[in-house]
């Protein structure tokens, strides 16, 4: 930066700071918990917020539902012709509040049964998307990068409490347990990484947890579906 100029995005707005995807304890900790924070619920107007901690309970990040205008740039959806301009937006940030990536879901009547979540960097650069793949049976979502399917999330267990993440070859990538709410409104997702996860798979796994919770287990009732 020279002459006091502030870096800008393509739309002319100031460039946002970005955390490095694939770096930091959110991506590297052997055990990570993503827990919905019920303190932020205010009925149907509530916004989904999640705390992210490591295996020792130390805060290492957060997920927050944000307003579209808070994202500071326009994101593009594959329009199916049934949209009304409605969308939900989420950001995953590090412990200091700097965003790693953005997740956006277009709310459309024609895509109610197969929700799709687009994943981008904070500056709008596309990373991939997560999309529901089945209308009936076990919840299954595909993980896509560069228009190629690189992995899958499939729920298992009597209470849909096991999240099986596999790569394109069907090999398990991480272990993830979902702890449904009992006497509270909190969902918790416990990730165990037997080995480091490469990008963009690491980011799409985190985005898929946000996606599956929002699409199928939302406690905020913010979704239209």
Defining traits:
225 residues, disordered N terminus, disordered C terminus, 12 strands, 2 helices, mainly beta
What does this structure look like?
By secondary structure, the chain is mostly beta strands. The chain has one domain (25-76, 84-216): LURP1-related (Porin, Beta Barrel), CATH 2.40.160. It contains two helices and twelve strands; from the N terminus they run αββββββββββββα. The protein has a twelve-stranded antiparallel barrel. Strand 9 and strand 10 (162-167) form a beta hairpin. It is globular. Mean pLDDT is 81; it is low at 1-7, 41-45, 71-84 and 220-225.
The radius of gyration over CA amounts to 17 Å
Unreliable stretches (pLDDT < 50, length at least 5) are 1-7, 41-45, 71-84, 220-225
CATH fold descriptor: Porin
Query: DSSP helix count?
Result: 2
Strand content: 35-45%
Question: Could you give me the name of the CATH homologous superfamily?
Answer: LURP1-related
CATH class: Mainly Beta
Q: Major sheet, described briefly?
A: 12 strands, antiparallel, barrel
Structural class: mainly beta
Q: N-to-C terminal Cα separation, in Å?
A: 46 Å
Mean pLDDT: 81
Any guess at the CATH architecture? Beta Barrel
Give a nutshell description of this structure:
With 225 residues, the protein is mainly beta. It has helices at residues 25-28, 201-216; strands at residues 31-36, 49-54, 59-66, 83-94, 99-108, 116-120, 126-132, 140-145, 148-156, 162-167, 172-179, 188-192. A twelve-stranded antiparallel beta barrel has the order 1-2-3-4-5-6-7-8-9-10-11-12.
